Amino acid sequence: MTPFPLHITLDSLRIEANSALPNAPVVDDHRPESATMKKVRGFTARTLRRAADRVEPRRALTYG
Fold first, then answer.
1. 2, 10, 26, 34, 36 from 41: Cα distances, Å
2. Entry pTM
3. How confident is the model at residue 3 (pLDDT cuts 50, 70, 90)?
4. Cα–Cα dist 57/48, whole Å
5. How far apart are the first and last CA of the chain?
6. Where are the alpha helices (DSSP H) in 1-64?
7. Is 64's pLDDT higher than 60?
8. pLDDT tens, 12-49?
């Protein structure tokens, strides 16, 4: 006799595994991003780009 929670667990595991397949449906929540969030996202991206440039600067030009 198999306990009921095992059935729920196995079904959830199957659904989770199937979500990684290439033909899995994509759910778009259609929530527009607020203007404040766009500004925060842009600021964060610029800050991370500057930090990355300081840690690993671009290669210098070499001649010859």
1. 49, 38, 24, 11, 9
2. 0.43
3. confident
4. 13
5. 78
6. 4-18, 35-55
7. no
8. 998 888 888 888 777 777 788 899 999 999 999 999 99
Tokens of 30: 């259609």
- Cβ neighbors of 18 (< 8 A, separation 6 or more) are 24
Measured between alpha carbons, how far is 44 from 37 in angstroms, rounded to an integer? 10
CA 55 to CA 49: how far, in whole Å? Answer: 10
Tokens of 52: 């990355």
With a cut of 80, say whether residue 63 has pLDDT above it: no
